[in-house]
Design a protein that fits this description.
The protein has 18 helices and no strands. It is mainly alpha-helical and 433 residues long. It has one domain (21-422). It starts with a helix and ends in an 11-residue tail after the last helix.
């Protein structure tokens, strides 16, 4: 009977994976002409056009969100209720979501905030439904296939458009959407494939396949030249390796690293720092080095944010609403460019939900990460949860969309948070040696 249920679950996964891939191709949305648009600078828009896009929205995204909402409702209806409030984490998360809704009362642009809140709650409903239906390992498989297929199709699209040029400082692998978002996609692809390799039987074809996919994901990730995505993914991969490795392997690794650094310094001398600085640009040239001081224009934007924040420090301006048509012209003029977001998940929470909202967000992220780390010591699936949460928290320093935008990576993060907050702990799993 158990074997029959497992086969039915595998069949179900093979239906869910293409379904989610299709839905998020609308909600993201995927744009096959994106690489050529970037090459010809068509992605640079004026303030009036940006405001028009905000007000108009995207019909494909709306359609995708409607279908995603229906998916969440149906999944909840046909899945056994296993929900519970797991301590302070669950209560803090519930408070945060309630505060998101309450922000409609003081929003500077209520219609704009309503759209953002509805989108966010559809994502959360679908994420909670998915968390109740699938295990963490099954979610890792979903992440692997959705992100892997997206990355491969995106690269094939670059080949089709003849836009691939790794030697050019201005070219970054994007394929279907912004290079930073593709960096998140490839990062999730790498984390899920490496985790699945770790839980596969030793010396099996499956393990070799997932290791090969990890390598492919890292290659594509480096081509995005997205520094935050690369750094966070490497930290997440290192965490997974550290948790599944023996003490002898860890000691050997650190010894090899120290020896390599010493040998590098002996051969290159002080130039090792120069080469290290060049490596941090990921091939984006002198312009990337020059922009480090302002974090690629983020510091002037954040300075502008704090100028506005002091006017409403406790409540903020409405969930994800500070960058809205209401005062977009003034913000763009003051910072000298047209930001599509605040480019920091933490500052976005501060501006939208005030000090109370930011505190709640930091609280539930900290508790979720602490719980995942605690469980990961003896329960292998939670190694993946902890790695993804580390990856998320690191990215949120310089990016906001990863926690609020209706993209698959946001959805996957919300599923893992829902599992930690509202579902029983999964059974312990032994590590493969």
């Amino acid at each position: 009977m158990d074997e029959l249920k497992a086969k039915d679950k595998r069949r179900e996964l093979w239906l869910v994976i293409p379904f989610l891939l299709l839905i998020f191709s609308f909600t993201t949305p995927y744009n096959p002409s994106w690489p050529s648009d970037v090459e010809y600078k068509k992605n640079i828009i004026q303030v009036n056009e940006a405001i028009h896009r905000m007000e108009r929205g995207n019909m494909g995204r709306r359609l995708g969100l409607v279908v995603l909402g229906i998916y969440g409702i149906l999944l909840l209806a046909f899945t056994k209720n296993r929900f519970r409030l797991n301590g302070a984490l669950a209560w803090l998360l519930v408070f945060y979501l309630a505060w998101v809704v309450l922000s409609l009362l003081w929003s500077i642009d209520k219609w704009f905030t309503i759209r953002r809140v509805v989108t966010y709650f559809i994502l959360w409903m679908a994420a909670i439904a998915t968390a109740s239906r699938y295990s963490i390992k099954e979610l890792a498989h979903i992440c692997f296939y959705v992100c892997g297929i997206t990355a491969i199709v995106a690269f094939a699209n670059e080949i089709r458009l003849h836009t691939i040029n790794p030697l050019s400082e201005s070219w970054r692998f994007s394929g279907l959407f912004h290079a930073v978002m593709m960096g998140w996609n490839c990062g999730m692809f790498a984390l899920s494939s490496y985790y699945l390799a770790s839980v596969s039987p030793p010396a099996s074809f499956r393990r070799m396949f997932f290791y090969a996919m990890t390598l492919l994901a890292l290659c594509l990730l480096l081509l995005t030249k997205s520094r935050m995505a690369v750094a966070s993914t490497l930290i997440g991969l290192f965490f997974i390796w550290y948790m599944i490795s023996s003490a002898r392997s860890r000691a050997g690794f650190f010894l090899v690293v120290v020896i390599m650094l010493c040998m590098g310094y002996l051969v290159l001398g002080d130039k090792i720092f120069e080469y290290g600085e060049a490596a941090t640009t990921l091939g984006r040239g002198e312009s990337a080095k020059e922009s480090v001081g302002t974090l690629t224009g983020r510091l002037p934007l954040w300075k502008e944010c704090f100028r506005w924040w002091v006017k409403s420090p406790i409540l903020g301006y409405g969930f994800n609403t500070f960058i809205s048509p209401k005062h977009y012209v003034e913000i763009s003029q003051n910072v000298g460019w047209t930001p599509s977001s605040i480019h920091s998940g933490y500052i976005d929470a501060l501006m939208g939900l005030g000090f109370i909202g930011l505190s709640a967000m930091l609280g539930f992220l900290s508790l979720a990460l602490a719980k995942a780390l605690s469980l990961a010591r003896k329960n292998l699936p939670y190694v993946f949860s902890a790695a993804v949460l580390i990856w998320l928290c690191y990215n949120l320093f310089l990016e906001a969309n990863l926690i609020i935008r209706p993209i698959f990576m946001t959805f996957a993060v919300l599923v893992l948070l829902a599992q930690l907050a509202f579902l029983p702990v999964e059974k312990e799993t032994e590590y493969y040696s």
